Amino acid sequence: MQYDPIKRTLGVFFNKSPFLRKIFYKLLDLLLLRAWHIKKEFNSWAKTQKGDVSILDAGSGFGQYVYFMSSYNKNWMIKGIDVKDDQIEDCSKFFSKIKRNNVSFETADLLKFSEEDKYKLVLSVDVMEHILEDVEVFKNLYRSLKEGGMLLISTPSDQGGSDVHDHDHGSELNDGTASFIDEHVRDGYNIDEIREKLKKAGFSKTEARYSYGKPGKISWRLSMKYPILMLGKSKIFFIILPFYYILTFPVALICNYLDVHKHQRTGTGLVVKAWK
To answer: What is the pLDDT of residue 96?
Structure first.
């Protein structure tokens, strides 16, 4: 199955008021392990920054990372871009309602987008696995960074991201349910592969580590995979979902903590940093 129909349903509910939308962001920050990893890396980077800071969220989606980063320092300028017009329109309306004046949004294709030497940080979360011409995008992001600026990426690895190894490159998993990677153009990145592509794009230094190790896999299944599978079968599970999370939420939080704070020798996700 695909995420988009579920995301649209959740979006309709949580967009009923700015308060609900903020609750939605908080839930995403708690449940999504990738958010834990991104926030850890962002906080470490942010502590070293002085003066004016411009940040680009390249593939801003629901806007949860724009919300988090723009909350860190109200004087920092955050720009979110996405290829989907409806996402950009939705985020623009929300951030306007809450009067978050250090934020802007723009519909843009990353294969064509480039703003020379403008940003100190470019964030890319769950984007590159959807783009075939990834080196061209890396080149555009490199050009958009200031000298010394950093690109921060979260993306599936080639170790089985999004349950990719549970199926034979088809549209269904072995248990008969549809794959979670229907929209991906690649199964995931090998660490050496993505480093080489970033070097080819011009980046002078890269660091990469695994995320979604053993504890992360448990958390992802409990907090994301199983609930989405249930919601895909029937909307009645929206009623059951709060009780499900009461039981599973503590376990998922512990697993998230372990995944972030313990070195993962392998994992289904990658966290990559590259400097101009």
So the answer is: 96
